[in-house]
Amino acid sequence: MAGARFPRFFDLPREIRDQVLWFLVTTDQSLHLASSASQPPLNLLLAHPFLHESVCRLFFTTNKFTSSGVPELLDVPAKTLRRIRQLRVAAVLRQRPLETLVASLSDAVLNGGLRVLELHIPPPNAFEHDPQLPEGMCRSLVHLLKDPYLESARLWIDFNHRAAWCRFHPGARCPHTLRDDRELPGLRGGVVPGPIEVDLGLLAERYGDNERLKMMVV
Asked: Is the pTM of this model over 0.90?
């Protein structure tokens, strides 16, 4: 009936409430951590204290979230980050930002519910002339992504990347590395190819703690 109301929603069994709320709070689109709280479905969390309690668990465990990096993550309370189950983050290979990123995400894994994690390494800029990968930072990445509490962990590099990454992704004689003249070959013809996945097993063989990795789920 049009305009009908059901004022006793919270009297329903929890299983039925969750089925109804699931359709209201879940989306196939990734949710950005910087999204406004006034936008749906976030606004439901602010509608009523009881509704917040019921919705919060579903909202953070069933949706996929994305972050553009460290500055944005620092604005997210640790309690909120620990509730998220699936997260994709842009990770810049510079020491201080990466250390902060790894610390925040490790806390969300060990002390929270983060179980599905993807990191995306953007292309190097004109100021990053070192063709080698920073060893300490790669060890930090392996330490994070091979955590046994993670059910799924993936590392992506940009189509245009340092040549040092090529040993860790499929395909011989990769033509997509950044050249000395800083040319981005992937941008020719206006086509921007997708990212390339790094083989975490190969990365762990090079930068991981072998004794520690024996205790982990590969």
From this structure: no
Residue 99 falls inside a structural domain: yes
CA distance 56 to 46: 10
Task: Decide if pLDDT at 213 tops 50.
Answer: no
CB 162, CB 131: distance < 8 Å: yes
Range of the domain at 69: 65-213
- Characterize 155-172 residue by residue with b for buried, 16 or more Cβ atoms within 10 angstroms of its Cβ, and e for exposed: bbbbbbbbeebbebbeee
- Measure the CA–CA gap between 47 and 43, rounded to whole angstroms: 7
Whether 53 and 71 share a structural domain: no
Q: 124 and 161 in contact (C-beta within 8 Å)? A: yes
